[in-house]
Amino acid sequence: MPRFVYTARNFEGKIITSDTEGDSKEAVISKLRERGYFVTNIKEKSKEFQLFQKKVSAGEISIFARQFATMIGAGVPLVRCLTILCQQCENPRFKEIITKVRQDVEAGSNLSKALQQHPKVFSNLFVNLVKAGEAGGILEDILSRLATYLESSEQLKQKVKGAMTYPVVVFSIAILVVIFLVIFVLPTFETIFKDMGESKLPLPTRILLGISGFANDYLILLIIGAIAAFIGIKKFFESERGQRLFDTNILKMPVIGLMQKKVAVAKFTRTLGTLIASGVPILQALEVTADTAGNIVIAEAVNKTRASIREGESISEPLKASNVFPPMVVQMIAVGEETGELDKMLTKIADFYDQEVDTAVKGLTSVIEPLVIVFMGIVIGGIVMAIFMPMLELVNKT
Q1: Which residues, listed in sequence order, are joined to residue 39 by a DSSP beta bridge?
Q2: How far, CA to CA in Å, does 392 sit from each of 105, 196, 380?
Q3: Residues 295 and 369 sit within 8 Å (Cβ to Cβ)
Q4: Phi, psi at residue 17, to the nearest 5°?
Q5: Which residues contact 59 (CB under 8 A, 6 or more apart)?
Q6: Cα–Cα–Cα angle for 15, 16, 20, nearest 5°?
Q7: Taking Cα atoms as reference points, which of 139, 122, 131 lies closest to residue 76?
Q8: How far apart are CA 106 and CA 78, in angstroms?
Q9: Residue 353 in contact with residue 345, Cβ under 8 Å?
């Protein structure tokens, strides 16, 4: 959705310059008029250099929520809180967004509506919780819960990333070493073999030299092909069909699939538990949870649950029918419903699965690391052996 920069006068006659998202100029003007603004100038914001703008991390948003909650609890007025948060923010992009939020709040907008104008930074979950906090007069508690939720979610994400960092780095180094040997080292050895008068090279050596020759002759085409393949695969998995294919199959994989399922359950239960504890209605909470699930299969199971609840069913029954959630999770949710403490039960499940993910990550790391090292040894060792086989044969002949 495009962004538009506008200059307008509010109901007090004060001139305000800010930006907002909208389908068109007319839609933005209409939206601003509803808020009591008279637009004097509006134009679409240029997208130049947005690629190089620093992104706002989850850690920065959680710190923002934590500091915001502390100041609200201390009785600092809302606009003053936003001013202080803006002054101490080090990320230029985030500072700009907080400034716009403050301007909208100063102009009479609710905090949740002001945050909603920046969906790339403040998620649907964040906005809905703030809206619930404003409605119930418990903004301090809501912001504290948000900070705790974001911190827990970030820790979970870092655990999974940490498990994959070492294997990816080692695998990347192995690929780079192989490319270097094939393109730069093997042609030199081919010249040496010709000078040695070797007419009949061993089969592995001939195959390797053939690959090297092909790579050198068509290097530019191979690079273009690799880039095109990368972009094509990336675009495919960003599409609904590709994402569905990926999300469905990753849950079926032996080791990684089990870990992904535990991550999804932990995220689902923590998100839903936080929303319910904050006073968000169950149907709305499930809608937000589905949007933030991160997996189409999980999101569809949650949406089916939402539809069933609208028809008068409990939460646990449709979750059980989906065959996505483990029996223990379904049973604990059923107990939470019966005792009226669903939010606490969901939080306990999330804490349990956070520990399960930690254990799964350690197990995955212990399995992947030796496999990557063995792969690296076989590939590079095979290349070295293929290079030295003609020399060994020559030594045996003499």
Answers
A1: 8
A2: 79, 12, 18
A3: no
A4: -120, 125
A5: 154
A6: 150
A7: 139
A8: 9
A9: no
Query: Is the separation of the CB atoms in 262 and 357 below 8 Å?
Result: yes
HEC per residue, the chain? CCEEEEEEECCCCCEEEEEEECCCHHHHHHHHHHCCCEEEEEEECCCCCHHHCCCCCHHHHHHHHHHHHHHHHCCCCHHHHHHHHHHHCCCHHHHHHHHHHHHHHHCCCCHHHHHHCCCCCCCHHHHHHHHHHHHHCCHHHHHHHHHHHHHHHHHHHHHHHHHHHHHHHHHHHHHHHHHHHHHHHHHHHHHHHHHHCCCCCCHHHHHHHHHHHHHHHCHHHHHHHHHHHHHHHHHHHHCHHHHHHHHHHHCCCCCHHHHHHHHHHHHHHHHHHHHHHCCCCHHHHHHHHHHCCCCHHHHHHHHHHHHHHHCCCCCHHHHHHCCCCCHHHHHHHHHHHHHCCHHHHHHHHHHHHHHHHHHHHHHHHHHHHHHHHHHHHHHHHHHHHHHHHHHHHHHHHC
Give the pLDDT of the chain (398 residues) as one tens digit per residue: 567 787 887 766 677 777 777 767 777 888 778 777 888 888 776 544 444 456 888 888 989 999 998 999 889 999 999 999 988 888 888 998 999 899 888 888 889 889 988 888 888 888 888 888 888 788 888 888 888 888 888 887 787 777 777 778 877 887 888 888 888 888 887 777 777 665 577 888 888 888 888 888 888 998 999 899 999 998 888 887 888 888 888 878 877 788 888 888 888 888 888 888 888 888 888 888 888 777 888 888 888 888 888 888 788 888 888 778 888 888 898 898 888 888 889 989 988 988 888 887 777 777 777 887 888 888 888 888 888 887 777 667 65
**pTM given for the model:** 0.64
Closest by Cα among 56, 57, 98, 58 to 78: 98
Residue with tokens 């003053």: 80
